[in-house]
Design brief:
Number of strands: 15
Number of helices: 13
Bound molecules: magnesium ion
Structural class: alpha/beta
Helix content: 25-40%
CATH class of one domain: Alpha Beta
């Protein structure tokens, strides 16, 4: 007995693979010796889902069977070192599936939402940022305005570059001189200079059209050379962004030390980070402003709550990664932290389509520019396994892999 509650055992661990919106999601279900008591976790690494599923089903399941699900920290630490080699995205996602499920179980056992286990709400709901895109600055401004009218105070703005393939903006209007890629099978190409010029023109237009009240964000998506990224961050300073995201690839993060003294443009980074060896040195030296980790990628709620607390001491706010390849279970985990961490900054918005809401009853609710918890015990979310099975992983030419993005000469660049 623990606090009047009977001791439990883990009786089953399994992965559920489903793609209700065509996005490959990996969910972990941990069952216990109490009838009907189970937990769900997000282990979605959408580009390598089967590697994660194997890690859970073949390696973590036998390690966890019979263990006490109340001992979240002990299970996390022992499972973490159980592979000896560790800290990578596949094993971290597998760990996250287990870890979130254990927090879900503990919340259900305590009859409390996970945010209460983490210290309780310090805000009513999580402000979201929406994604605005368009073919030119005028279209992007219209899109931002539409979100502002819906109640959003934070909007990410991405613009197309005519003739090029850019991240997050939709199709480009092709006018003027078009440089053709050398590789005939290449659908689009990316070149840094036209992109940088277009982004500066975009923010000049947005601020002159929309004023300074709306919080504007932009994601560089690690695509440009570091020195050009530094130039861009400096140019954008006068447009007072809420944050500029992923100016550097993880491989180039030492450039943060060169960027930081040169501009006050707020920097968001780390959706691609996997482990503390990458983020701790940058946090302790206050080299960025928003931590963007993908919760399942760093191992789940247990490491994320420690990371959020560590960031708080250094004035860094949270902006957990929240696109469609975070499952609704992962979004519910994001929200538990958003509501309970003092140093929350903003949450990325994803609109769950009806099929996804049907597969995952209890999805957090989007309303008036905020994400709201349903305040149910645990993570407050369930899965309809029969319905989930009706959405198998779709056929994909590269089995889910991100297709290469190339320069005009055919050189592959970061996605
Ligand atoms: Mg991003």
């Amino acid at each position: 007995m623990a606090n009047g509650l009977p001791r439990l055992k883990i009786t089953d661990v399994k992965t559920i693979l489903t793609a209700p919106n065509g996005i490959r999601l990996v969910i972990v279900k941990v069952e216990t010796s109490e009838a009907g008591l189970y937990g769900l976790g997000c282990a979605t690494f959408t580009q390598r889902p089967m590697a994660v599923a194997t890690s859970v089903d073949e390696y973590l399941k036998p390690f966890l069977m019979g263990k006490d699900p109340d001992r979240i920290e002990d299970i996390y630490q022992s499972a973490f070192v159980s592979s000896y080699w560790r800290n990578g995205p596949v094993l971290n996602n597998a760990l996250s599936g287990i870890d979130m499920a254990l927090w879900d179980i503990k919340g259900k056992r305590a009859n409390m939402p996970v945010y209460d286990l983490l210290g309780g709400k310090c805000r009513e709901a999580a402000p979201l940022y929406a994604h605005a895109g368009g073919r030119d600055p005028e279209e992007v401004a219209d899109s931002v305005r539409k979100y502002m009218e819906e109640g959003y105070r934070h909007v990410r703005a991405q613009v197309s570059v005519p003739g090029y393939s850019v991240y997050g903006a939709g199709g480009g209007k092709v006018t003027g001189k078009i440089w053709k890629p050398l590789s005939p099978e290449q659908k689009g190409a990316f070149e840094p200079t036209p992109y940088v010029n277009a982004v500066i023109r975009l923010f000049d237009h947005l601020r002159s059209e929309l004023g300074n009240e709306v919080e504007l964000l932009h994601d560089v998506h690690e695509r440009i050379p570091p020195i050009q990224a530094i130039g861009l961050a400096k140019e954008l300073e006068k447009y007072r962004l809420f944050f500029l995201e992923d100016v550097f690839a993880p491989e180039d993060i030492e450039y943060l030390r060169i960027l930081r003294p040169q501009t006050s443009t707020p920097i968001a980074i780390s959706e691609l980070f996997n482990n503390m060896c990458e983020y701790v040195p940058m946090i302790k030296d206050r080299l960025f402003d928003f931590i963007r980790c993908h919760l399942s990628q760093i191992g789940g709620i247990s490491p994320a709550k420690k990371l959020a607390s560590f960031c708080e001491f250094f004035g860094i706010r949270t902006a957990w990664h929240g696109p469609g390849d975070v499952s609704p279970v992962g979004h519910a985990a994001n929200l538990a932290l958003d509501l309970s961490c003092y140093n929350f900054g903003v949450q990325e918005r994803h609109v769950f389509r009806q099929e996804t809401q049907d597969v995952f009853p209890g999805c957090p609710e989007l309303r008036d520019g905020y994400l709201w918890s349903n305040d149910k015990p645990g993570l407050g979310i369930d899965i309809d396994e029969e319905l989930a099975a009706k959405f198998p992983f779709p056929e994909h030419p590269f089995n889910g892999a991100w297709p290469p993005v190339r320069k005009l000469d055919g050189t592959v660049i970061r996605p």
